Structure formats: C-alpha cells, structure tokens
C-alpha cells in the first residue's frame, strides 16, 4: 500500500467498525456478490472487500448489469470485467435484451438480475456501494414526494431480497468524497457515466444543484445531519412495524382469505393512528397489485367510522373495501 493512504486506512477502519457493531450484517465466511457499475462508489466497495477478503474469509463475485442505455455500455461492462480479473475476483454479467423505459423499470430489472447472479454464484449476500451521500439524496427525494417515515429511512443497512438472499449496504457511513479519494489513492480507473450529469434526471439535479446549495447556504454538515435523521427514523420504523405485526399474530383480528380477506374493524379502531396506518398497509400489501400508497391507506381507514355496508372507491385491479360489521372486507368488483 502506498504511503499516502489516508482514505484507504479510513475506509477500512469504517468498514471494520460497522461489521463489529453489526456482526450479522456480513459474517465471516460469507459468500458476497458485489454489485459493481464501474463508478467510484462500487469500485471502492469491490477494492476494499478485496483488501479485507482474507481477514473475513469472504467468497467474492463481482456482478455487473448492462442496461444497454448508453452507446458505451458494452465497453463499460468490459472495463469492470477486466478489473475483476486483475483483482482475482469472479465475474458475472447480465445484459438487458428488452427495452427499459424508465428508472423504475431499470431498477426492477437490475435487482432481478442481481438475485439471479447471487443464486448462480451461491451468494447469500448482495453487497452494494451505496454511501452516506446516497442516503441523503434518497431522504430528500422521498421527502419531496410526500413519503412517510418508511420512505425517509428507506436506504437501510440491509434488507431481504428473497428468503435466502440479503441486500447489504456496508458503506453508509462513507461519503462520495471519500470513495473518490480512495479510488485516487489506489489508482483505480473509474468509468465515468455520462448520464450522471444529465439534469433531466431528478436525482442528478438533487446531487449536482440542490444539495450543494443547501450545504453552502444552510448547513455545511448537511450529509452528517440528514444521515443521522435517517438512522433515527429507521429505529422508529422497525419498532412500529413490529408493533403493527403483532395485530395479526393470533388471527383474531384478521381472516386471510383468497377471495374475501377481512380485518376486524373495532379491533383496528382501538389502535393508535400510527399503527392503524401500518396495519392497513401490511394488510392491503398482500392483496393489491400495486405498491400501497397513502391514498389507499386513508381510503381504507375511512371505513372505520362509516355506516354498515358502506364501501370504498375501487383500488387498482377493481378491488374495493366493504363494511360488513364487524369486519372491513376486500372484494373484487
């Protein structure tokens, strides 16, 4: 390692501290699929995992998803494959064959492919290079969309992709400035994605214009402050989700049914509003064909005080909720 290795040492210390504080995040001997785009954050992730591989006895595979969005996407994939070979890490590639028309569809395809490659490589952990900077962007982006606490705390240390595969983000205490400096110290050639400068993408505008403005005019330590808020919210979200799940435990207040599932209205009324909303979301999420939003939840909860036989406006998929005292029932039109 070079003598000028301040950021390399710093990031190794940060990673070790995270894994010591959360030993179940990435246990020793874990098989890890590293999601690498070729940008500075993901290459920093891959290199630091290569450095720590022997210490933790990790099995490593680098995974790359080629969305076919840019004219240089194939060269980008070949660049990542070359680095994987130089670092002695196995490589997996998936290339999109259909049209990915939006950021949302690209993200959905990417995670499907990461799960597929994790199974192929027998990896129980998909590891991404999301940083503290990404966490700040996500919170601000979701705040402007009107998200609740779940959306504001959505970039968490880990979440389940399938019952056997976890997504892990071990660099959430690292800034984008630090990953850039790490790559420079280690002479890592970063692939510059031209779309990252395109202000037509709202997240790019947040990163390039909004956040620097807020740092200059409101709080130079904005990243630390917002990342701390996200961490605090996440603890609240975990607690409230667990409390909401208890409502269903004894199956007294719910009937899970393929054609007419129902919640006990009076039992739900006895819960605090914060739990009512979470219980309704957990219930609706099992049956609605789309991601449950605030309007869906409020439409359902309005029936708590409605007359018997009242019904809601339809949800997507021609499903509506009906008061059949003492239950609120979901039915197809």
Report what the structure shows:
The protein is of the alpha/beta class. The chain has 2 domains: 6-230, Rossmann fold; 254-332, Chorismate Mutase Domain, subunit A, CATH 1.20.59. Helices cover 48% and strands 14% of the residues. It is built from 12 helices and 10 strands. The strands form 2 sheets. Strands 3-2-1-4-6-5 form a 6-stranded mixed beta sheet, with helices on both faces. A 4-stranded antiparallel beta sheet has the order 7-8-10-9. α3 links the parallel β2 (59-66) and β3. The chain is elongated and about 70 Å long.
* Alpha-beta classification: alpha/beta
Number of domains: 2
The amount of beta strand, in percent, is: 5-15%
How is the main sheet built? Answer: 6 strands, mixed
Radius of gyration: 23 Å
Q: What is the topology, as strand order, of the major beta sheet? A: 3-2-1-4-6-5
CATH class of the largest domain: Alpha Beta
Element-level helix/strand string: HEHEHEHEHHEEHHHEEHHHEE
State mean pLDDT (0 to 100 scale).
94
The count of DSSP E runs of length 2 or more, i.e. the number of strands, is 10
Residues in helices, as a percent range: 40-55%
Poorly predicted regions are none
Q: DSSP helix count?
A: 12
N- to C-terminal distance? 67 Å
CATH level-4 homologous superfamily of the largest domain: HUPs
The CATH architecture of the largest domain is 3-Layer(aba) Sandwich
